[in-house]
Amino acid sequence: MKDTQISAFISRDTKAELERLVRQKGLKKGFVVEQALQVHLQALRELPDDVIISPTIVLSKKAFARLIKRLKHPEPPTPELRKLMKGEPVSDDGLR
Amino acid sequence: MASVRPLREGDDRGGFRSGDPDLDRYFHKYAGQNQFRRHVGVTYVLEEEGAILGFATVAPGSLSAEAMRAAAKRKLPGYPVPILRLARLAVDERAGGQGIGTQLLRYVFTLALKMSEELGGVGVVVDAKPAAVDFYRKFNFLPLDEAAEPPGSARGTVSLFAPLVILRRALE
Description:
The complex is a heterodimer. By secondary structure, chain A is mostly helical. The termini of chain A are far apart. Chain A has four helices and one strand. Chain A has one domain. Chain A is elongated. Chain B is an alpha+beta fold. The chains are: A mainly alpha, B alpha+beta. Chains A and B meet through strand 1, helix 3 and helix 4 of A and helix 1, strand 3, helix 2, strand 4 and helix 3 of B.
């Protein structure tokens, strides 16, 4: 019994592949999407976090806008960063 | 004389102890697999007289905004921006307070600047343990507000970002 709905932007290619699969196999689109999600979530549960380093970080729109603004108007380097980049010894106190 | 180099398959990692069980498990068990089998990241080690005193794992990555169509409407880049991700950094507890962590951080910054010149890139993202956030803030890292915790972030970490444009200014 399906009791909720999701909507998502996906690539045209993925959508076309999904359409092809449901036509060929005679499956319902919702069934395929839910199965795919379940498999993906199960894989993530079974893999320890240590194994994967995700290449993509998704930010909220507000955070992404803040990031772009910071890239356009960066603050000055801190004194510690200046020392570090000039090859001077810098303490690593507080790293742990 | 201490030097930084990529991890080798034959390196003895079993004796490394940072005092953080998650980081130690990662280094002992998964750093080699990620580098030599999965090719998803490279670990650099700081070695002195044959002993590994610290390590840093890096991987290329990107930052993007959720619902890019809406973002594009707000005149933001409608594409992900490339970064270098500092996924793990740890120092052996026997070498604590000797600046090993900052030497590795400098190495990672140099890699990020080189990557930017050769391939593009806007900054470095570090997955920091909460206790280390103040340490990274001293080097212009500020928190990112992620839409969702990305898979692959180490457990209980905070993602912080330092723009390369600031690193370049620090060299002037």
